[in-house]
Amino acid sequence: RRRRRRRRRRVGPAGWLDVAGGVGVGVVALVRRGGSTGPDPQAQARLGLQEAAVAQATQRRDAARRQAEEWGLAPEPEAIRRLARTLEDRAHAAEEQSRRHEAITRRHAALEQAADRLRALLAARGVEVGEDLDAAYAAYSAACRARRQQATEAARAADLQAQLRSRKELEQVAAAQRRRREAAAQAVVEAAHAVGVASDDEPVEGLVAGLRSWQGERAAGRAATLEAHERWSRLETLLDGATIEQAEAELRRCRAEHAAFDGVTPLPLPEDPDDARAGLRALEGQAHDAELAVAGLEAQLADRAAQAPSVAEAEEHLAHAEEEVARVRRLEATLATTTTFLEQARDRVHRDIAPRLKRSIEAWLPAITGDRYAEAAVNPADLQVRVRAPGGTWRDAVRLSHGTAEQIYLLLRVAMAEHLVTTNEPVPLLLDDPTVQADRQRTEAILDLLHELSADRQIIVFSQEDEARSWAQAQLTGTDDALIQLDPAKIPA
Asked: H/E element holding 232?
C-alpha cells in the first residue's frame, strides 16, 4: 500500500497538467460568456479569481513538467498513465505472489503440524517412527488391515467350527451308511450262496433279483401247500371219521327222505357240502336279524304307546298354538306399520338433510379444491358425495385423488355436525391430521375453514405437519385461539 501511494505521488504532475488545462478552458468559456453581456463587477471578480487559479495551475503544470523531466519521464499524460498502470499491475502481481507465498507457508506449517500429530499418534500406538513418516504410516496401515482381517476371521471362528462339526457328523453318517451298505451286500452274497442262486462274477444287483425270484417261488409253493392242508382239513371235518363212500350214501339217503314229502317241492341243495353249510349259516343269520328287527319294532311301539298324549292335552296344546299364531300375526302387522312409518321418516330426513349438506359443502368446496370443483351432490342413503366443475360432468369423490377426497369428506363431516345436532347447541369437533394429504395451498384453505367455523364451536386439531404449525403461529393470535405444542418425549409410543 505504501508503494502504491508513492507511485501515485510520482504520477501526480501529469494529473496536475490535465487539471490546469481544464481550468484554463473553463476560464476562457466564462470570459466569452461575460463579453457578450457587458461589464459585470461580480463577473469581473470571478474572472480575476479564475485567472489567479489558472496562473496557479500553470505554475503547478510547469513544476510537474520540470519534475517529470528530472525523473526521465515524458511529459505526455497518456505515457505517464500507462507507466502508472504498469507499476500498479506489477504491485498487484507482487502482492498476489506474496499472498501465495504466505498461503504456501501456512500449508507447509499445517502439513508439519499434521505430520507431528501423526508421529505422536503412531508413537502412542507403539509404532517406531523414523525419518520416513510415509513408510511408518504404510506399515501401521498394513498392520491395521492385518488385524482387521484377523478379527474378521476370528469372528467367523464359531461359524467355521459349527460347519466343521456338521461336516464331521455328515462324514460319520456317510461312513455308517457305507458300512451298512457293504454289510448288506455281503449278506446278500452269503444268502445267494446259501440258496444256490449265486455265481462267481454276478454283481450284487443280479444276486438281489435272483433272491427275489427264489422268494417268489418259495411263497407260491408255500401257498399251494397251505391250500392243500386246508382242503384236507375240511375233508376230514366233513367225513367225521367216515369214508367218502359212506358220506355219499348218507347224502343220497337224505335227498330221498326230502323228496318223500308230498306236495312239497324239494329245495335244490348244492352239490358241495361246504356250499350247503354256508347257505345254512346265511339263513340262520337272516333269521337272527329278523328276530332282532321284530324286537326293536315292538320296543318302539311300546314307547310310542307310553308317550302318546291324551286328547285333552292335545286340545290344550292346540289352543296355545293358535294363540301364539294370532300374536305373531299381530306383531307382523305392527312391524309392517312401523316399517312404513320409518321409511316415511327416512324419506323426509333425506329430503330435508340432503340440500343442507349440499349447501354446506358447496360453500367451501371451491376454496379447498383450488376452484377446481364448485358443485356437490350428496346421496343421503349412503352419504356418497359427487362433485363437478361448473358445467362439467359429475365425478364420485372416492374416485378423485386421495387428498381431494379426504378434504371433501372433511366438509361432509363438518356439515353433518352442524345439521344433525338436535339440542340446538354447537358440538365440538376433534380432528386428527386433517391436512396430511393436502398441499400447502389446500392446507391453508382447510385451516382457514376450520378457523372460521371455530367462531361458534370448539374445534381441536391434532397435527404433526410443519405447514399447520406455521399457519397456527401466524393466525392463532386472538384470545379465543391457542397453539399447544406437545413434547415428543412425553407422548407415549
From this structure: helix 204-239
